[in-house]
Amino acid sequence: MNAREEILGAVRRAIRDTPRALEVPTEPVPWSTGDVDLFCERVQDYGAVVHRRTKAAMPRLVAELVTARHIGALGVPVDLPGDVLRSLTSSVTAVVDNGLSAAELDDLDGVLTSSRLGIAATGTIVLDHAAGQGRRALTLVPDYHLCLVDAASIADDVPAALAALVPTRPMTLISGPSATSDIELSRIEGVHGPRTLEVIVLD
Length: 203
Prior knowledge:
By secondary structure, the protein is of the alpha/beta class. 28% of the residues lie in helices and 24% in strands.
């Protein structure tokens, strides 16, 4: 037996008991509704503040939250529902994003958007930047993000969520406030997005 045969023999023995690759299913993953309580728990685990309200009570809560945080200029998408805007107190100015510049976005005290869906298993909020969600820059530049999540749009897990999304749309996945770690593993917030994430789950 030469060296080549010895090497190939060793390789064959090593892979002999290796299981065959799993077959990847090609059928679409069905939508499965997620546990709202679990979603809220996971979002809070990331350091976000979570509230649960009915849709009717939401506008008043939005007004209370932004007023309590002393938000003066609140960025909003052009197609945010009017009842929310009408609920804001006189101390809060709704700044509609009609293509605000980076400097104008940076001057905002916060931003209010809706969302596409949530994922219960991971506590993730997904924005595909359709109606009411604004463009990506609007949700990443201001330091405070108040996000509305419809309880009926919360998926059970990531495969169920992906099945409900259009893959060609731009997507932003949010798992808590923006955070990263430096070389000493010290947590730093607000490096590439809002330092404060507040979520209203609408029942």
